[in-house]
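Students often ask why we bother predicting the structure of a whole assembly rather than each chain alone. The short answer is interfaces. A chain on its own may look different once its partners are present, and contacts between molecules only exist in the joint model. In this exercise we take two input lines together and write out one structure for the complete complex. Read the inputs first and try to guess which parts will touch.
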Amino acid sequence: MLLLATYASSHAALRAEKALKAAGVPVELIPVPRQVQSLCGFGLLAEVPDGVLLQESGAENLWQVREPEAGQWRRTYEPYP
Amino acid sequence: MSPTRRTLDARGLPCPQPVILARKALAEGGFDTLEITVDDAASRENLLKFGAYAKCQVEAVDEGGGVTRVRLSPQGLAPAPAKAEACPLPEGGPGGGPVEVVLLSADGIGQGDPGLARLLMRGFVYTLTEAERVPRRLLLMNSGVKLAVEGSESLANLQKLEARGVEVLACGTCLEFFGLTSCLAVGGITNMYEIAGHLMEGPTLSLG
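Now the answer. The structure tokens for the assembled complex follow.
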């Protein structure tokens, strides 16, 4: 599943990105969407089987990401789990 | 078995409806060729780009009077057709209308910490992929060309923008300067004459 992890700070998000990539987990650093509450402006998108690795990376909150409907461009986010 | 054809009449439909219809029809499948009739030049161009992106054999038949039949024949397993439409922007003068050209003249946004600058640029390019309205062109100059080469964190997002119909153009002099000409992985190479021409076409946003 595609999850978004949010962090307490940009530095924490960058540290988590580095650690997860080093562990072979493909992640993408993206600006946190408006509908997602976060202190930090950046979060990590990752296609993972569950939220364990992201929680271990120091994530504050996790969100399940839904791809946009046809003709729409914005992903939507629901609290996970 | 003779080849099957599905036809769609998309005349009179505003952009991006013809491409959305084509995308839905391709997803449904059940035919060898999809033929979409349009009467709008932008829709025609977007369908041609979309067809190429969706790995279709593409053919455009001019029917006269501005009407075109676009034939898309899926070739084997097509990728899930993604975002592929960029629509013409409403009329607007410089400073007054929507942005038509985005110029990224660095691989980061703003001065100060280079790491933060690059983080902001990555975020900006990602956010563009989710924007309702995308520019016609994205011009990359100076270290901005590094966004479009192999290994760039923004590469996949620039490819998404290209699939939405944004023309991505990188400065050839800049690529050559950084020794990256052979590493360009999205868009095309352009020169100062083209860049200057595009920047004068309409409202432009410059970041870098």
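Check your guess against this: The two ends of chain A are 12 Å apart (CA to CA).
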